[in-house]
Amino acid sequence: MNEKEILLEIKNLKTYFPIKSSNLLGKGGQAKAVDGVSFELYKGETLGIVGESGSGKSTLGRTILRLIEPTEGEIIFEGHPLQQLKRRKLQEHRKYMQMVFQDPFASLNPRKRVEQIIEEPLAEQKVLSKSERSRKVEELITKVGLPKESLKKFPHEFSGGQRQRIGIARALSMNPKFIIADEPVSALDVSIQSQVLNLMMDLQDEFDLTYLFISHDLSVVKHISDRVGVMYLGRIVEIGTKKEIFENPQHPYTKALLSAIPVVNFEGEKQAIQLTGEPPSPANPPTGCAFHPRCPFAMESCKIERPNLIQFEDRQQVACHLYSEEEFYSKAENSTSAI
User: Fold this and answer.
1) Which CATH architecture has domain 1-96+179-261?
2) Taking 90 as the threshold, does the pLDDT of residue 100 lie above it?
3) Contact (Cβ atoms closer than 8 angstroms) between residue 115 and residue 152
């Protein structure tokens, strides 16, 4: 079996926002929206990023595209470190990296017709003539399931699902290799969500796309993703294949998220895991493991030392002292019995 080709590498990425102090003589702190995230994204796959509101998912996506400048870390796209590129060089690479935004009502310019909205990235990059751009725009609008007549209309004349299709067409205009989809169906009716998700999956196969799919809805992530990363307070606490995350979760936070998914016609009684308290503020994160104040299995070591992602299985990593200590005692018992 051939080794998977890495399209994107994220190494110890951090995005901190300064907080203004109310004390005129002192400095404010920092809100650690993304706090040391590392992962690899393989060509042609969909990596789902899930977590509660405030976990840093959207900030992570925007930082990867440098819509927000990172505080620290590396963003390597096809071997090129994006954080080192200046404006012109960054623009050359950015055409291969596009974004579909959460709110289809706010992400489209209400004063422009649909044809202008889709054509704008092409005109900005100056890669095609006017007639070629027009043909490209007509092709894209039909690819996303809308008639050519839509091009002459304004965004307010469309439903939410149709607007999101227009946003997807705009993202495809530059023939990207990588698309970040930031909660692309959360603002849509449930009946429309599956249509947009299936469209994205069909387009992925047709255009050989790679997705970073950000969502708080685990059911949506399960439908579209190949692998899943779970974020909590700016950090990835577990990452693995969809099968491993949904059938064999290891981190207590992942287990709690999965237990909260509504299930219809299941056999036996489902036990939801109740988390105490609210997620901590990224401006004042807990010491050690950020999840320990809410974790029912927290140990003394969890309050002191931040756990790193360790390999659990070939296709799964978890950042949890509970697993680390179980592994340690398991090895100790085996070595003792062998003596």
Assistant:
1) 3-Layer(aba) Sandwich (3.40)
2) yes
3) yes
